[in-house]
């Protein structure tokens, strides 16, 4: 039968409706309204045509494949795709594979000298080609993660008002009280499974950056996808803007947030409560809410308040604790000592330090140590001095009280080191250089293999450098840091120290929680994650001076953590997705994001004749549907 083509597009619809305005005067108002609506559709649907991970062909036109970063493949579109989609001629004649594009990206980013420019290049890449961006990060973790996240993300947050390009995430302000749910409804994705939220009060070790802290949730969620394969459309970065107490920002003409001091107290708490309720109402009870870089006085409060009623965790407390304990578990193979055989001294008693201490206690309990005995092995020193019960400043509320000692007041950290004689020294104070040569020498005097963790971020805030730790302990220290350091040269040998990066932990925990639909996240999951990371440390890693596996192994760690979390969730009755999968790893893999390009061609199939159709004729339909461009149907 003669082929017949029917082409309908939105522009013709608008023209037809305009004709209706003239010819159908009794229905003139209706026609005008319909025309206006169609024009708005044409004008509005110019960017991000895709929501979720299922493309609806009738809602996407050819040009969208170049404009939308989720669809764009650059020069990787085949000739057939370019012709069918109607984009042939809109690109150069060259065809490139995704592998060729990756190599070009590597060359391009290597030409930038400043890390902030490299960061901006990656932001631009994500804005135009999402799959290429995530594949680049996932395949070059060691080179790209320090740019996408710490330490470069700290500088990006400080310059956020200057480098801000376009929206990526939601800004929920205190002015939106009573309407937080309405703000969440404005996010175009309905299948959000994971939210990273900050109020910007304590960004890394940089302090209060207010709304400029958006770089942190954006960076964290980029790692959710790149390191754990969580689909990007399921991730939502959010900044809660309640003002800032940073005077420099309040006077900065480039600052993008609310220009008033932080709202605090009851009003602030009620606003956070409203936010939590709105998330559950919009996306469901199982939505993972990761708190990030809240002030010390709020972090533990919110964790204790919400952990048993929402699916939530605080990465600064629990993620940092898990990666630190992973390093301690790995160090057992060097020192041949159990965790409980150590004496711990912390510089800093904020959310990170206390979080680590709490999980260290749990690790000791797993070895059979009693709760109070475990806490007695941990000493802490903060801005007011040693955590001693009788100190005049007090300020021993919350979890700090567990580690306060019956001891005299001490204000000099070096004196505390000499008295306590710790075998493990952990810095989480954001006080750059606080581990002085004197203190490091003392650690070497007390211990054959002193364990020294300088965990503060960014690099400028680290308590000591890797080189200083080795130089002042005769090369005998077991060292880890929160930010990366260059290889250390000592005694004719090169040591490549490990970075205790939370990225070893939170992507895998999040993946396991999401695929199981876990309602609440117990502390045991972070101990499981710590053990998995420690198990991935090889003898070769330990020999070269690292307590952590290479960053290139994070994806493997994330998968194994997710499997461990999944097993635990089903064993403890925390999972809500049923039936329980027999092969947990295969089940998890079925939910992962595909970093590789997929065909942009419409799906076609043949129709077989129905029973009773005796002339043997078959009908082949090639359907290319697009609301904006065409609906083409051929019958042969």
TrEMBL record:
GO cellular component terms given for this protein: mitochondrion
Keywords recorded for this protein, A-Z: Metal-binding, Oxidoreductase
Binding site for a divalent metal cation: 292-293, 316
Domain Malic enzyme N-terminal: 126-307
SUPFAM superfamilies: Aminoacid dehydrogenase-like, N-terminal domain, NAD(P)-binding Rossmann-fold domains
Cofactor descriptive note: Divalent metal cations. Prefers magnesium or manganese.
Listed Pfam families: malic (PF00390), Malic_M (PF03949)
Domain (Malic enzyme NAD-binding): residue spans on this chain: 317-570
Catalytic residues, chain numbering: 149 (proton donor), 220 (proton acceptor)
Example GO biological process: malate metabolic process
Keyword Metal-binding part of the UniProt annotation: yes
InterPro entries recorded: Aminoacid_DH-like_N_sf, Malic_enzyme_CS, Malic_N_dom, Malic_N_dom_sf, Malic_NAD-bd, Malic_OxRdtase, NAD(P)-bd_dom_sf
GO molecular function, one term: malate dehydrogenase (decarboxylating) (NADP+) activity
Cofactor section: Mn(2+); Mg(2+)
Residue positions binding (S)-malate: 202, 457, 501
Family stated for the protein in its record: Belongs to the malic enzymes family.
Protein name: Malic enzyme
Organism: Anopheles dirus
Organism ancestry: Eukaryota, Metazoa, Ecdysozoa, Arthropoda, Hexapoda
């Amino acid at each position: 039968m003669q082929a017949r083509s029917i082409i309908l597009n939105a522009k013709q619809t608008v023209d037809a409706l305009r004709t209706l305005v003239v010819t159908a005067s009794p229905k003139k108002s209706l026609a005008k309204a319909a025309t206006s609506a169609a024009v708005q559709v044409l004008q509005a649907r110019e960017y991000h045509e895709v929501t979720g991970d299922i493309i609806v062909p009738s809602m996407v036109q050819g040009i969208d494949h170049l404009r939308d970063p989720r669809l764009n493949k650059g020069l990787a579109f085949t000739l057939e795709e370019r012709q069918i989609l109607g984009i042939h001629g809109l690109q150069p004649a060259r065809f490139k594979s995704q592998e060729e594009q990756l190599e070009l990206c590597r060359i391009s980013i290597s030409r930038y000298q400043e890390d902030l420019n490299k960061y901006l290049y990656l932001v631009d890449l994500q804005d135009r080609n999402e799959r290429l961006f995530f594949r680049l990060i996932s395949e070059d973790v060691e080179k790209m993660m320090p740019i996408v996240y710490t330490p470069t993300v700290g500088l990006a947050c400080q310059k956020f008002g200057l480098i801000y390009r376009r929206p990526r995430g939601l800004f929920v302000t205190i002015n939106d009280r009573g309407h937080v749910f309405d703000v969440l409804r404005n996010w175009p994705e309905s299948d959000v499974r994971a939210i990273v939220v900050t109020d910007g009060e304590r960004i890394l070790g940089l302090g209060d950056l207010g709304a400029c802290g958006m770089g942190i949730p954006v960076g964290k969620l980029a790692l959710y996808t790149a390191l754990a394969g969580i689909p990007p459309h399921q991730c939502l970065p959010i900044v809660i803007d309640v003002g800032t107490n940073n005077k420099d920002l309040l006077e900065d003409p480039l600052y993008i947030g609310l220009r008033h001091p932080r709202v605090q107290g009851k009003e602030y708490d009620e606003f956070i409560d409203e936010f939590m309720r709105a998330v559950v109402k919009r996306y469901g009870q199982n939505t993972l809410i990761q708190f990030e870089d809240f002030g010390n006085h709020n972090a533990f409060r919110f964790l204790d308040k919400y952990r048993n009623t929402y699916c939530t965790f605080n990465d600064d407390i629990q993620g940092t604790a898990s990666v630190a304990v992973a390093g301690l578990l790995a160090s057992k193979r060097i020192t041949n000592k159990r965790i409980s055989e150590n004496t711990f001294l912390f510089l800093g008693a904020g959310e990170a330090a206390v979080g680590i201490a709490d999980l260290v206690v749990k690790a000791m309990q797993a070895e059979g140590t009693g709760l109070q005995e475990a806490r007695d092995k941990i000493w802490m020193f903060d801005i007011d001095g040693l955590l001693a019960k009788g100190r005049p400043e007090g300020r021993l509320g919350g979890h700090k009280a567990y580690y306060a000692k019956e001891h005299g007041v001490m204000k000099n950290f070096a004196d505390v080191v000499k008295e306590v004689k710790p075998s493990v020294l952990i810095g989480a104070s954001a006080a750059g250089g606080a581990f002085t040569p004197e203190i490091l020498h003392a650690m070497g005097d007390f211990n054959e293999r002193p364990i020294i963790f300088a965990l503060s971020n960014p690099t400028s805030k680290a308590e000591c450098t890797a080189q200083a730790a080795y130089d002042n302990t005769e090369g005998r220290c077991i060292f880890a840091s929160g930010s990366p350091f260059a290889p250390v040269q000592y005694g004719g040998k090169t040591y490549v120290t490990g970075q205790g990066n939370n990225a070893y932990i939170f992507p895998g925990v999040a993946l396991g929680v999401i695929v199981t639909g876990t309602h609440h996240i117990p502390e045991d999951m972070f101990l499981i994650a710590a053990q998995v990371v420690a198990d991935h440390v090889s003898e070769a890693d330990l020999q070269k001076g690292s307590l952590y596996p290479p960053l290139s192994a994070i994806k493997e760690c994330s998968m194994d953590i997710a499997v461990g979390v999944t097993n635990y969730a089903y064993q403890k009755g925390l999972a809500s997705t049923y039936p329980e999968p027999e092969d947990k790893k295969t089940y998890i893999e079925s939910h992962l994001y595909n970093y590789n390009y997929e065909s942009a061609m419409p799906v076609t199939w043949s129709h077989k004749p129905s029973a009773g159709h005796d002339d043997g004729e078959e009908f082949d339909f090639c359907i290319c549907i697009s609301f904006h461009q065409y609906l083409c149907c051929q019958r042969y």
